[in-house]
């Protein structure tokens, strides 16, 4: 057999598959080049999902006209000269592969002008170079890529529909806009402007991507912890999205998907989230370069951290302080509250003295020291049905991926957290708590040694009802109470079929439900703890989501609904409790001060004597 040395053209076509496989990767490479060239304005235009045309125009440094042909050469780069330069690369590109690869599988034209030179252009079709010619144009570079994969039909076949490709380009552009808020981006698809940012900061960039309304729902944070810097925006306690596409994390400027950080965020929010709700965040994590390995996979956007616990601990504690509104949170909120509205900050301030018992180091702690000390520091809310457990045991809130080394680390984290949670049970012996009165007919005051607790009687009651019902549901021992007048509900055929299929489940949770002729059902008994349940609202909610119920378990949904029903049935704040009722409430709580109400609000807050003494300047 004869050995052929492949021509550069063929070789590049083969190599192209590794750099560019889809229109969005063309966009990514070209925009990265524009950023590397120092552009402050970048315009991206696509047609036909980018299959027909991708054009990226920038106002960066440009390419000298005698260098133009070299841009198309494989392994030709202006960003690196010697092997030792590799360790200091600050640019996004350095391999010198992208232009050569894209040019070999498309019709490409580069027009460029440096501030000192004249504009020139050079085109290339399927890897065959034309010659450099004078052109018109201002400073900077315009790269046009037409008919991607026109000469490699096999690759063309693998592309998705125009609209799917467009979607992927759009999310790529959203990430660029968010990660480079100092650059003005314009993104057009099929001649229509889809995104436009003006290079005037992150909150403006967020508004450009998600619309200006989003800002009122976000907190801006800026925190330094354990040598890790976390900044950006997170959704407030009541702002959620139906999926994970509203979550962006940039580690040292690079977009990544990372399980450790994602888990820290999910857990920080867990008390506030219902099923199928996902937090919104755009976060920037700056870590010492030596503790992050970006080379896990060249194309997959993941990173590996030397120590997941520190990353987890830092992110979790910052985000949960901000969400739970403790005094430390004020330090983490960005100093210019462009976003967290004045009232929200006020709420945080009001809550400030009753911060939860979370040991934060006073002095700035280095990464190295943190490594030794953090073991005891990850703040976990303990108690029955507590936050981390719910998330970790709940497969529906964790995406399933093929296992990867990063996932092993995630598993380790999981184990570690569960252990921590067990250790940190916040249970107190109820007998040691002395009742000292109440405030505003809502908060019960308890004293125990040098600690005081304020218990929100409404939240506590909600939680107790909820727990009781859950327990009975699980043991299938719900006691029903017949209604004086049965509740009859008329539904359509599909809804009826759905309800009928779930009669058993509904009966298990204490609703005596039966067919009532035609497409109607009759409820004749309700759980005795929930006699005041609003059945029409309850069914309206279940039926509103029944179409999406195929994928998830109805039981989960019912638990959610039950929780809200419990809250409605619970004693309202403002109603005075008798002393006996107060006692009973505390006994039932069994001294568990880590409880949260079914909606995630804390049931009790802890105030240390020393904190009061500080307020009165008895100690400093
Ligand atoms: P790399 O980015 O890894 O250097 P590329 O193939 O992407 O490799 O680009 C090759 C070279 O072409 C770059 O090193 C740079 O000198 C030049 N170049 C490409 N795009 C631009 C641009 N938009 N502005 C200025 N120079 C560019
Ligand atoms: Mg490049």
What does this entry look like structurally?
The chain is an alpha+beta fold and 620 residues long. It folds into three domains: 8-201, Heat Shock Protein 90 (2-Layer Sandwich), CATH 3.30.565; 211-399, Ribosomal Protein S5, domain 2; 428-620, 2-Layer Sandwich (formyl-coa transferase, domain 3). Helices cover 36% and strands 21% of the residues. The chain has 21 helices and 25 strands. Strands 1, 2, 3, 4, 5, 6, 7, 8 and 9 form a nine-stranded mixed sheet that branches. It has a five-stranded mixed sheet with strand order 10-11-16-13-14. A four-stranded antiparallel sheet has the order 19-20-21-25. β10 and β11 form a beta hairpin. The longest helix is centred in the last third of the chain and has 19 residues, at 405-423. The chain is elongated. The termini are far apart. It binds adenosine-5'-diphosphate and magnesium ion.
The total domain count is 3
Give the helix tally: 21
Tell me the strand percentage band: 15-25%
CATH superfamily membership of the largest domain: Histidine kinase-like ATPase, C-terminal domain
Radius of gyration: 30 Å
Average of pLDDT: 77
Gist of the model:
The protein has 620 residues and is an alpha+beta fold. The chain is built from 21 helices and 25 strands.
List the helices and strands and how they pair.
Blueprint: H1 8-19, H2 23-36, E1 41-47, E2 53-58, H3 68-71, H4 98-104, E3 107-113, E4 120-125, E5 128-129, E6 133-134, E7 140-146, H5 153-157, H6 162-179, E8 184-189, E9 192-196, H7 202-210, E10 218-225, E11 228-235, E12 240-241, E13 247-251, E14 254-256, H8 259-269, E15 278-279, E16 281-286, E17 292-293, E18 304-305, H9 308-324, H10 327-332, H11 342-351, H12 367-373, H13 387-393, H14 405-423, E19 434-439, E20 443-448, E21 451-456, H15 457-475, E22 480-490, H16 493-501, H17 503-508, E23 512-515, E24 520-527, H18 535-544, H19 554-569, H20 579-589, E25 604-608, H21 609-615
Parallel strand pairs: 1-8, 13-16
Antiparallel strand pairs: 1-2, 2-7, 3-4, 3-7, 4-5, 4-6, 8-9, 10-11, 11-16, 12-15, 13-14, 17-18, 19-20, 20-21, 21-25, 22-24, 23-24
Helix pairs in contact: 1-4, 2-6, 6-7, 8-9, 15-19, 15-20
